[in-house]
């Protein structure tokens, strides 16, 4: 059966909110955006993430907010290899509020409750992994129902003190570390699998 793989940028205090841009996610008065994750980009991180993407070709599983953010940015990045790859990748959007056609090519609403829809999608697509990027609300819902198989965490050497955290309200069991790499900028990229 396919795996659900969460790929997340986190601070040392587990904040995952708005790693890309100042205005990316200001919910709850969050004022620490501004690309906190991009400050630590380096060739090691690019190489590790490139290997991960090549090894886990599949579909993206996104929450509505992350999908809308990506759809507003990536299709406009003409000539960018990452944008081209994302355009071609099938994208499933989990949302209780969404319906109708999605503007970004290869995008499909899952509809209904993700905890019901995602296992059904896994059964329909047994040979294709589903990769969750960002999508904190969706991811926490999947984690609460023990549906995430693997975590690729990019842990940045930064404490923000406030913001939405990945593991808030989630009681995880044991995880087994299968790989770890430290970049030149101090980001620890660690892969964990369920127990």
Percent strand: 15-25%
**Largest sheet composition:** 8 strands, mixed
Mean pLDDT: 90
List low-pLDDT spans.
none
Helix % is 25-40%
Strand order of the largest sheet: 4-3-2-5-1-6-8-7
How far apart, in Å, are the first and last alpha carbons? 17 Å
Indicate the overall shape. globular
> Tally the helices: what do you get?
5
Give the tally of β-strands: 8
Which short descriptors sum up this protein?
alpha/beta; 5 helices; 26% helix; globular
Structural account:
The chain is an alpha/beta fold. 26% of the residues lie in helices and 25% in strands. It contains five helices and eight strands. It has helices spanning 43-55, 64-73, 81-88, 114-124, 136-144; strands at residues 4-11, 58-63, 91-94, 107-109, 129-133, 150-156, 175-182, 188-194. Strands 4-3-2-5-1-6-8-7 form an eight-stranded mixed sheet. Strand 7 and strand 8 (188-194) form a beta hairpin. The longest helix is centred in the N-terminal third of the chain and has 13 residues, at 43-55. The model has no long low-confidence stretch (mean pLDDT 90).
